[in-house]
Structures are given as C-alpha cells and as structure tokens.
Specification:
By secondary structure, the chain is of the alpha/beta class. Helix content is 47%, strand content 11%.
C-alpha cells in the first residue's frame, strides 16, 4: 500500500487562496526572484530542527560552488527584515562559501503557515528527530490552537500518531537525551511512558540502552516494575537432627510449639509462644515461677 504523502509542501502554502494547488509549482507568478544580502536574512523562529548535519551542509556547498544555487530561498518580510521560510541548509551552505548575496523569493505568509511549512518540509525529508517533530506538533497546538485532527490531515498522518508523538515530551529529561542520541527508539519510549515516575523512567531507559533490550523485553521490564512480585522471606535453614529432637521434646513438655532459631554455630534463641494469660501462667509454673500476672 502506498504511503500517504506528508502534507502538500511549499506549494500548498504559497499559492493564492483562490487558486488551485499545483504540486509542481514552488513559486507563484506574482512572486519574483531577487538578490538579498545574506546578512539580512534571519533564521525562522519556527524551524523545528535543532541539529544540522555538517557533512550534508558541506556537500550542498560543493554542489552550489559547481552549479550555483538552483532553487532560491523562500523568505518573508518581518519588521523590515527578511525572515527565512524555507531553505535553511541552503542559507548555511552559501554562508559557508562566503557569498554576500543569495537568490530569494519574497512571499507573504502568516506565522501559522510558516510553522506548518517548516514541519511538512522537514517531515518530507525525514530530517527531524522524534522530539523535534513532537515539539513542532505541540507548537501548532498551543500557539495556533490547531486540533490534532487538523494537524494530522495537514501532514498526512493519523490523529493517534500525532498524539503519540506529542506524548514523547512527557519523558524525563535523561530519557529524552537517550532518545535524541538514538540509544533507545520511539517504540521503547512509548513503552517507558507507562512509568509515570521520572526516576523509574530513567532507570528503565538506561537499562534498555545498556542491555540493548527489544521493545518486547522493555514491555516485560516495565510490567515487572509496575507489578513487582511480593517479597517472600527465605525459609529458615533446617535444624540439625539433635536440635529438632530437642524442639520436639520441649514442645511436648510445655504443651506448645517450641522453636529454636540458630544465629550462629553456637548461638541461638529458644522461643516458647503462649496463647493468653492463663497459658503464660501455666508455662511459668512449669519453670517453678509463681507470679500474679
């Protein structure tokens, strides 16, 4: 079954509202390509990616050096400055080459459109880490009031998938670090969310990472932590035969079960239980003790 496309991409957001979306187009006729000073372009505050692969930037820079910038950056005007809408890797690449100017298309776009676009473009390239993706979903929900159903429709995923990704932000900070580093997977993380205590989550996540546990093994680990088996006291070691015979004789003499607990080779405790005052008085009388108890 073919995978559903992740959103409509750049074209869907920069076409005029009364025009049909053409997935092939990336710039509408009313937009024009101009040269902008590289130093005048500031990054988008809605860029979900926090980490950029330097090797990929270098490879892109080499391509631009040989063939030039084929696709211009998409920017918008904010407070008299250019703010990037799409093309941060291209901007980093031309900056590394020392270019003073770069081709841009200036387009009008709202904050919400830019945030959606940044998410969709990165999802299409599979560039985001799970937590970067989750944070962008939360931004769309909290800042722009988008429902999970709406976000799901825009990015081509199910509502449940969006909800599960956002829940990753509930992970304890050390667990999020292990997920970002790739030491645990999203599958592991979803299982660890069953543990509501941050310390328990961290303990389990580190155990998963050290032992390279599978998701199924992680499920068993979490179940054991949530439902620990009751501790059972170890059975006392069996008494030597001679001590057992003494216990039997004393039990017969005192009319109650007498126990000997050995605390070492030559040390121990003799226990003579009694049931009520009258039983205690009876046992004391056997010892020749008469007390008004």
């Amino acid at each position: 079954m073919a995978r559903q496309a992740l959103g409509k991409g750049l074209s869907a957001l920069i076409m005029k509202k009364n025009e049909a979306v053409n997935p092939v187009d990336t710039v509408v006729d009313t937009d024009r390509v101009i040269l902008a000073n590289v130093g005048d372009i500031k990054p988008s505050p809605f860029q979900p990616r926090r980490h950029f692969d330097e090797q990929q930037i270098e490879e892109l820079a080499s391509s631009i050096r040989e063939r030039g910038l084929v696709q211009p950056l998409i920017v918008r005007k904010v407070d008299g400055q250019f703010e990037l809408i799409a093309g941060e890797r291209r901007l980093r690449a031309v900056t590394s080459l020392g270019h003073s100017t770069v081709k841009v298309v200036v387009h009008e776009a709202s904050d919400q459109e830019v945030a959606e676009l940044a998410l969709i473009e990165n999802l299409q390239r599979a560039d985001l880490t799970p937590l970067e993706e989750a944070e962008q979903y939360r931004l769309l929900q909290e800042r722009f009031g988008m429902k999970q159903e709406t976000i799901a429709k825009h990015v081509g995923k199910s509502r449940a998938a969006i909800a599960n990704m956002v829940r990753l932000l509930e992970l304890a900070e050390p667990v999020r670090g292990l997920l970002e580093q790739g030491q645990i997977t999203v599958g592991h993380a979803k299982v660890l969310l069953m543990l509501k205590d941050g310390e328990q989550q961290t303990y389990a996540a580190r155990k998963v990472a050290r032992g390279t546990l599978t998701v199924r093994q992680t499920e068993q680990l979490v179940r054991n932590m949530l439902n620990p088996e009751p501790e059972t006291k170890p059975e006392p070691p069996a008494l030597p035969p001679a001590y057992a015979r003494v216990c039997s004789q004393l039990s017969h003499d005192f009319g109650t079960r007498v126990n000997i607990s050995m605390k070492g080779k030559n040390n121990g405790i003799i226990e003579i239980p009694y049931a009520g005052r009258e039983d205690l008085v009876r046992i004391l009388q056997i010892f020749g003790i008469s007390e008004n108890i």
